[in-house]
Amino acid sequence: MESIDVSMDINEIIKPENLVYKKSSLFEEKPFSYCPGCGHGTIQRTLMEVVEEMGITEDVVGVAPVGCSVTMYEFLDIDMLQAPHGRAAAAATGLKRVLPDKYVFSYQGDGDFAAIGTGESIHTCNRGENILVIFVNNGIYGMTGGQMAPTSLINMKTSTTPYGRKQEQMGSPLKITELIAQLPGTYYVSRHAVHTPAGVRKLKKAIIKSFELQKENKGLCFIEVVSNCNSGWKMTPVKSNQWMEENMFPFYPLGDIKVDGKLVK
Fold first, then answer.
1. Is residue 150 one of the residues assigned to a domain?
2. Is residue 151 part of a domain?
3. Shortest CA distance to 136 belongs to which of 70, 193, 180, 85?
4. Would you give the DSSP letter of residue 175?
5. pTM value?
6. Residue 1 lies in a domain
7. Edge-to-edge, what's the strand order for the sheet holding 60-64?
């Protein structure tokens, strides 16, 4: 049996071309409190990689409301503002108007952006406020008990629809991203997922593009991230990702919806 040479220089092993992942310096020394297997950690890691690589750490301000995103302030070493439930888009509007040279983003869930804050959300998009909205859609109220959200699929079981969402009683799921793409104020609208390395890379490119467009004062950029909620869905992380692929993606297809102010056909 051949012996393994363990005398290789550690500096050779950790060369940049061999590095699979390096923790961003913009994370606090504190473990995530998100449920194991949840997509929030991956989304926020990707966001911080972009901020660090673009060199905009001192010029970026994030806004997060109530929901799973409310814990972001504990983990990210950037300027953050907390907004009341559903009001992040309005708070981000005020920030950007007062500090127009800053890169401003809001980070909102489906219950926040598409339900409690629908009014603020729609009007912010329609006005074309020069901000980035990151919209995390897991089809459920993940933090407050797993209730049905506007984006919950037909027949999807939640704590408030134990027999599944029924269209005749609760209406159809809201495709909020397609809806806001119709508004003249939105310039770039795209939908992504982070359950695969390829998906993470695509999201990263979309965030970079959005910040570059914000610098050019093009208008509102909107990125939906379809994510799992293995705790709320009562599944293992692996099973929840499979369920997401089989059920969420057909209804919420990934890809660009609006580019350079024009709908993608």
1. yes
2. yes
3. 193
4. -
5. 0.91
6. no
7. 79-82, 60-64, 103-109, 132-137, 220-226, 186-193, 255-259, 262-263
